[in-house]
Amino acid sequence: MAGLIYAYSFPPVMPKMSLRVFQMLFYIARLAHPTVRVSARIPMAQTVLETGQWTSNLAVNAKNIFGMMFPQARNTTAIDKTAQGFAVYRSQFDCIKDYFLWLEAMNLLNDAALDGFIAANRYAADPKYYTKIQANIHAQAPALVSPLQLAGATTAAALAGFFGFKAIKSLV
What is the domain-level CATH number for residue 44? Predict the structure, then answer.
């Protein structure tokens, strides 16, 4: 069956990661995963916690903004792994795309499922991880926007265009 696929090419220099940039990349990546309805609320809190506002060695050098381990039994966008087993990506956007592959593999298709998974201490070894995520969500609430508010866009292409991504339409 033929379908429409959108690919996005990056501008020559990626902008510095911020809450706004993260949300933009997150919602662009979500376009390729229609069954996943997770909002940026929890993942944004996770990436800020995991990377110390995107300044950790793993975020800067491995482009890994979720602390993702290299997967053994699922599709991935990772290109390598560190000596400690963390996934290495070409870009932080590839890490976000991999997060969606992980969500699909774990069948965490909405905010409630993801929240429950984290609350059950299944994401991180830190027993206070869920409490820290909730605190980050509360602190970042003023920065949260819907995908369309983010760019004042009315279409996915306009959303991507606002950020300098070039939409490439193709039929398959």
Answer: 1.10.530.10
**Closest of 136, 69, 74 to residue 101, by C-alpha:** 74
Does this model's pTM top 0.85? My answer is no
CB 30, CB 40: distance < 8 Å: no
149: containing domain:
4-171
- For the cut 90, the answer to whether the pLDDT of residue 169 exceeds it is no
pLDDT in tens, 86-106: 999 999 999 999 999 999 999
Backbone torsion region of residue 53, taken as left when φ is above 0, otherwise alpha when ψ lies between -120 and 50, otherwise beta:
left
Classify each residue of 31-53 as buried b or exposed e, where b means 16 or more C-beta atoms within 10 Å of its C-beta: bebeebebbbbbbbbbbbbbbee
